[in-house]
Every structure is written in C-alpha cells, then in structure tokens.
Design brief:
This is DUF115 domain-containing protein. By secondary structure, the chain is α/β, with parallel strands linked by helices. It is built from 5 helices and 4 strands. A 4-stranded parallel beta sheet has the order 1-2-3-4, with helices on one face. The protein is globular. The two termini are 31 Å apart.
Length: 165
C-alpha cells in the first residue's frame, strides 16, 4: 500500500506509485489564499487517481462549500495538541483529535500506524533542509509555486530550524 503526500502527485512517476491514500496537513493561510487552495485542490484531484484523501478538518468547510473532490473518499483529521503535550505512547487514534504536524510525513506515519501497517518504508522524504537551509523538490511546483512562506524563490529558507536539530 502506498501513501503519498502533498505535492507528490507532481512527480513524473506518480502514476506508477498507484497511491491508495494521499495526505495533506493543515494549510497555513499566509501566502495561500482560499482561492489558491481551491485551485491547488482541483489540480490535486485531477492527478490522484483512485486515492482516498486525508485532509485537516480545517479544510472541510472549503471542500464542502466548493464541492471539491467530487466522487473521492475524503477523510478529515482533527489536528490539535502538540506532540510535546502528548503523554501516551500508544498509536495515535485518528478517529479522535491527533497531534498537529510540522511535516506531512508525520501525518502519513500516524495514519499508516493506525491502519495497522507493520512495515513502513519512507521514500522521497527528504528533510535535509533542516540542516542544509535549502528546499528542493523532485518536480516543478505548479499551483503552489511561490506560495510557501518559509521558502524564498531561490529555495533558501526564510527561517532556519537548524538549532532545533
């Protein structure tokens, strides 16, 4: 079973992955307007094949209001507490509020573990930006190009998290 994330549908080999699930975390409306998100979701829908979609509950009203992802199963996670506030070491129950994520692969891991997957292999999850201070994609962004407020147009980060790692 393959779980893909965010803009991964833009990868040139995406059709070969045959994604069963696709995840998008909470959207930060700083550089992204509601119209940008609608355009992004429409672009995403046209590329996802039969994948079920996991979104943050914060996008539920936008999806409903604009009839986005018609014919696709969409599930919503309530992203709330911080992992720092979490006391349980049990697998996160995604039918309840779950810790908010700073990175969508963490959301995908919570879902995979909840669904009972025992062997999880992460491909294309490249977070060296925390150390390198640059962000590069394996594909060209389309609708989301220039919309990430944490990344300058040249790929350098607007803020560094280096000291946290």
């Amino acid at each position: 079973t393959v779980i893909t994330v965010s803009n991964g549908y833009l990868h040139s080999d995406f059709d070969k992955f045959q994604s069963r699930y696709h995840c998008v975390p909470q959207i930060t409306y700083v550089s992204m307007t509601s119209e940008d998100v609608i355009d992004w979701f429409k672009e995403m829908h046209s590329h996802l094949g039969a994948a079920e979609l996991f979104l943050s509950s914060t996008e539920a009203e936008l999806v409903r209001k604009h009839n986005l992802f018609s014919g696709r199963t969409v599930r919503y996670l309530v992203l709330g507490e911080s992992f720092d506030e979490r006391t349980s070491e049990e697998i996160v129950d995604i039918s309840q509020p779950v810790p908010r994520v700073e990175s969508v692969p963490v959301m995908a891991l919570m879902i995979a573990m909840y669904l009972g997957f025992k062997e999880i292999i992460l491909l294309g999850v490249d977070h060296d930006r925390f150390l390198s201070s640059t962000y590069r994609y394996a594909f060209d962004l389309k609708v989301q190009k220039g919309k990430d407020f944490t990344v300058n147009v040249d790929g350098t980060l607007t803020r560094t998290l280096h000291d946290e790692f």
